[in-house]
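Lecture notes, unit on binding sites. The following record was shown on slide 14. It pairs a sequence with iron/sulfur cluster.
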Amino acid sequence: MFNGTDKRYNQYSAYLKNKFGVKVYKITLDAGFSCPNRDGTISTGGCIFCDEGGSFSQAHSNLLSIEEQIEEGVKTLSARFKAQKFMSYFQAYSNTYKPVKELEKIYNASLCRDDIVGLSIGTRPDCIDDEKLDLIAGYKDDYYTWIEYGLQSIHDKTLRKINRGHDFDCFLKAYEKTKERGINVCVHVIFGLWESHDEIMQTAQKLAQLGVDGVKIHMLCALENTKLADMYSRGEIDFMSEDEYIQTVCDFLEYLPKTTTIHRLAGNGLKKNLIAPCWLGAKMDCLNKIDRELMKRNSFQGIKFL
Ligand code: SF4
């Protein structure tokens, strides 16, 4: 139903293949950034789920230069997936948290091969300004350019609970300035933040109303050496069951417009330091169950989008 596949949602990988005519893979990069919510500028604790890798990040290779990380990524992804084109993906921590001159050098270094067709930069909405956005907008004529904003929820009470260090209004301002410059925006959300089903759907409806270009969905999970792991070990919190997560994902997708690309529906590479919930370790299983649930409902992304 989407991108010539049998998926009932607008899967980003299939969207990229359609757009570029070949498989395109993101190379995750670690440029040694930090985060104002970890280094004491906003708070020293960081988000309660954040681990020492900058939370959910697969890039932990800042001993290598950016160019070396790119070469490694190309080699690995070509061998494993026959990838032919690539996007530089600055994933770990807040990848706009340096002066603009330094950012320019870092981003340029990642665009060091002809087969790099895109640039994706993960950051916080309070870590961006006009100068940085102008720099990033400067890449969009030559590269498929995205900013990925961690939002997690539109509800300020939830953002306070997870020690996010910014509110929804901060996201809205950053979003508006980013879209004014024609940069694609992917928004990260987390399910299982002790919100009601209605509250999670309000986040879906708001993102649908904003017309965000992409969404990445995570399930809240406790990784080793996080505040969340401590809370879990003290018996203070519980996690969504797999079934509840699958139902919530499908409900969420139904509200999003068909044009919103879905960058992720379950965590990647979490097995190693995952404490709970255990079911999240079997990612493919979870994705297949989401496909089956949409089929069972005879539903698809956007069915409830007005
Ligand atoms: S914004 Fe990202 S890197 Fe910073 S504390 Fe939160 S999860 Fe960690």
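Take-home: The longest strand covers residues 144-152.
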